[in-house]
Amino acid sequence: MRKNIVAGNWKMNTTLQDGQALISEIVNMVQDEVTGSQVEVVVCPPFPFLSVIGKQLPAGGRFHLGAQNCHQKESGAFTGEVSAQMLQSVGAEYVILGHSERRQYFREDDELLSQKLKAALAAGLKPIFCVGESLETREADETFDYLRKQLQDGLFHLSNEEFDQVVVAYEPIWAIGTGKTATSAQAQEVHAFIREQIARAYDAQAADNTTILYGGSANAQNARELFSQPDVDGGLIGGASLKSRDFTEIIKSF
Ligand SMILES: O=C(CO)COP(=O)(O)O
Fold it and tell me: 3-state DSSP call for residue 128?
């Protein structure tokens, strides 16, 4: 079901102690300041902190726990890896998959991501599946062809029931960590395009029900304008999710 979501991707940042202090501030501020609005908050700390941070989130409320990655296999001799089932067992409800940093630095391709998606869904996790073009692709005017292919090869192999569980995040690579955010018009244009592709691959109802988040230098100043766009259902926030005041302001932007 389509929701408003603000998700914080901490990436490889904080210590446990700093992360605990951060989440405690965020929970307090959000509980004091965010009233009425239905926005869901997903916190995605590094693997070792999931369980502890998860316990700091008030149960049954707007806060949910997410992971930043998972392995494609259920279990076995894969030293250093973390399965979707493990994440589920420590309280994660979401998992980010297909982030451009994973695609770029860890060579994750559509085939591997398909397997990861299946593993996450089998474990009962909701994937936050990221797509987004590079600056080169945008400047070559190939953004829509690129995104169409990324969606078709990476995501649209899922059944209707599986796709129902997926949140899509549009993260233009040129906007991630660069301070160069997409304009609200650019974000809206791509989000509407993604929704149209979902309608073609599944149906109009699936398209209407899908939550599509924007990520890439979203901050307390630009969130309201981005979230006011009809097809932007929230944000996947990197840098600004590490500052309690900024992250809370973003959550308040709905
Ligand atoms: O990659 C992102 C979230 O997954 C966005 O990062 P920034 O908000 O730091 O640009």
Answer: strand
CATH of domain 5-251: 3.20.20.70
- How large is the ipTM? 0.99
Q: Are 72 and 108 in contact (CB under 8 A)?
A: no
CA distance linking residue 110 with residue 152, whole number of Å: 9
pLDDT in tens, 224-251: 999 999 999 999 999 999 999 999 999 9
Give the global pTM: 0.98
Supply the pLDDT for residue 49.
98
Domain map of the chain by residue range? Answer: 5-251
Which ligand 1 atom minimizes the distance to the CA of 176?
10
User: Which atom of ligand 1 is the closest one to the Cα of 100?
Assistant: 1
Indicate if 64 belongs to the active site. no
